[in-house]
Amino acid sequence: MAGERGVAAEECVGQVVLPGDVLHLPTHPDEDGERLRLGARPAPPTRLLCGPGLRRCDAGLLVTKCGLLRHRQAGGGAYWVDSQQKRYVPIKGDHAIGIVTAKAGDVFKLDVGGSEQASLSYLAFEGATKRNRPNVQVGDLIYGQFVVANKDMEPEMVCIDSSGRSSGMGIIGQDGFLFKVSLGLIRKLLAPKSEIIQELSQLYPFEMVLGMNGRIWVKARTVQQTLIIVNILEASEYMTAEQRKHALAKLSGN
């Protein structure tokens, strides 16, 4: 879409962008000049976030992935590319579900669905010390956050926040069902007030962990209820809202 000279990012929101396209960020010189003339104090600068599928360059933003350009106004604004890719690329700050594949000294190796495994220190758990080590075994599911994720270094995960608290991260229970969906569906489920999650919560009580790497862990009261929720989540990507409501109403007996 964008030529060699590039186009304004605002004009491409909701449209398909291709790798190599250059998007110019919006500037507001007229508003800045108006503030100076009126003697008003300038507003504090806000940081524009560059999300997946985009990379900063001298001209603005360089598209690195094919998909739909999205924009969010809140929090200073953010641009990202919404695509249906299957392979996950770790991003710093993302919460993901990993599978412990090996123990290498004081470090656990996790399969996170990327091109290489992530590392997790035994000290990256709440309350962990040299004497009080977490009981992590090969095959366990770990829900954590990436603190290191770039093309030149091995991904690194932790199960604590900046305050040293677990904040819901750590070892996931042995029961339940783990399955994989597209990254686009994960973003829909993680959206505030997701309709799919709200509709499912009215069907059965269940626990669910969502990873940005396309993995979902679900546990309901019975195995049958768990499998029903799994099937609905897997099919929701290809169902319209009306079809999904009809299926949920049929299951609930309404």
TrEMBL record:
Quaternary data: Component of the RNA exosome core complex (Exo-9), composed of EXOSC1, EXOSC2, EXOSC3, EXOSC4, EXOSC5, EXOSC6, EXOSC7, EXOSC8 and EXOSC9; within the complex interacts with EXOSC5 and EXOSC9. The catalytically inactive RNA exosome core complex (Exo-9) associates with the catalytic subunit EXOSC10/RRP6. Exo-9 may associate with DIS3 to form the nucleolar exosome complex, or DIS3L to form the cytoplasmic exosome complex. Exo-9 is formed by a hexameric base ring consisting of the heterodimers EXOSC4-EXOSC9, EXOSC5-EXOSC8 and EXOSC6-EXOSC7, and a cap ring consisting of EXOSC1, EXOSC2 and EXOSC3.
Family annotation (Gene3D superfamilies): 2.40.50.100, K Homology domain, type 1 (3.30.1370.10), Nucleic acid-binding proteins (2.40.50.140)
Pfam families per UniProt: KH_6 (PF15985), RRP40_N_mamm (PF21261), RRP40_S1 (PF21262)
GO biological process: CUT catabolic process; DNA metabolic process; exonucleolytic trimming to generate mature 3'-end of 5.8S rRNA from tricistronic rRNA transcript (SSU-rRNA, 5.8S rRNA, LSU-rRNA); nuclear polyadenylation-dependent rRNA catabolic process; poly(A)-dependent snoRNA 3'-end processing; regulation of gene expression; TRAMP-dependent tRNA surveillance pathway; U4 snRNA 3'-end processing
Principal place of residence: cytoplasm
Location relative to the cell: Cytoplasm; Nucleus, Nucleolus
A cellular component term, taken from the record's GO annotations: cytoplasmic exosome (RNase complex)
SUPFAM superfamilies, per database record: Eukaryotic type KH-domain (KH-domain type I), Nucleic acid-binding proteins, Ribosomal L27 protein-like
Domain K Homology stretches: 176-224
Residue ranges constituting the Exosome complex component RRP40 N-terminal domain according to the UniProt record: 15-84
Highest taxon listed in the record's lineage: Eukaryota
Coiled coil residues, start to end: none
InterPro entries: Exosome_RNA_bind1/RRP40/RRP4 (IPR026699), KH_dom_type_1 (IPR004088), KH_dom_type_1_sf (IPR036612), NA-bd_OB-fold (IPR012340), RRP40_KH-I (IPR049469), RRP40_N (IPR048541), Rrp40_S1 (IPR037319)
Organism field: Probosciger aterrimus (Palm cockatoo)
Name of the protein in its database record: Exosome complex component RRP40
Record-stated family: Belongs to the RRP40 family.
Keywords: Acetylation, Cytoplasm, Exosome, Isopeptide bond, Nucleus, RNA-binding, rRNA processing, Ubl conjugation
GO molecular function: RNA binding
